[in-house]
Every structure is written in C-alpha cells, then in structure tokens.
C-alpha cells in the first residue's frame, strides 16, 4: 500500500483513482511517489505535475520535512527517486498539452520526434496533479470555496 507519509506511517487503501482534498503536508506527493515505487519495484514510475516549481519547492522547504532531508538522497530512497518525474506546466493550457503529449516509446507516436520530457521510458504507474486549483484560481484564498480545493491532490494509479 502507498502512503502520504514516510514509512512506517498510515497507509492509503487500494485505489484506481483518488482525490485527496483538505490540508495535507507539502511533501505528501513525494512520499506518495516514493512509497508507490517501493511497493511496485523497478517497473514503477510516478509523474507529479504541479503548477509552479517555485511554490512547490518553497512549500517543501517551509515544511522542513526531516525525513526527506535525512533519507531522500541516500541508498534505496535515491534509487526510488530516480523513478519520479516532476513537471511544472504553468497554465491549464500547458497542463493539457503535457497530458496530451505523454506517450511511451514504441507506440504509434514514436516516429513523431518525441520530446524527452514527455516521452517516458515506461508508462507512469501514478500520475499526481498537485494543487490543481492553482490552475483555475488567480490567487488561492483559503476562505474561497471552489470545486477543487486549493489543497487537493488528484491521483490516478494505472
């Protein structure tokens, strides 16, 4: 099972697709990707899409996740992290473009001059849309209710 926390930690139930809303810590997408890669082994690959590299990075730095600082760049965790791709499409149009261009070499798109960021070696086992509200709200105001809350993760396990 996968988790939003370093192990040992609470596990999520099995899911083919999942929407997590409400407050969660900013390193949750990374822990989710690492625990999935750990569970599925070398064939696993996680893709995290966030609207802003700066906001994503700053939120993780503000959190000061001790486990990430102590363990993410060492041994097995570093190997698991190599199977995580982070992309930062800044607008809904860019997000749509990236999602529409994702493909695996060997498919019918192989001869179309694939870009290395969108042509993945293997199909993603997990796609995480981190904070999708940022694509549709000019500024995320916690008092403003929206269809997809500002602190939402949309996860699809394939």
Automatic annotation (TrEMBL):
Superkingdom assignment: Eukaryota
Name the UniProt record assigns to this protein: Uncharacterized protein
Naturally occurring in which organism (per UniProt): Hypholoma sublateritium (strain FD-334 SS-4)
The organism's taxonomic lineage, starting at the top: Eukaryota, Fungi, Dikarya, Basidiomycota, Agaricomycotina
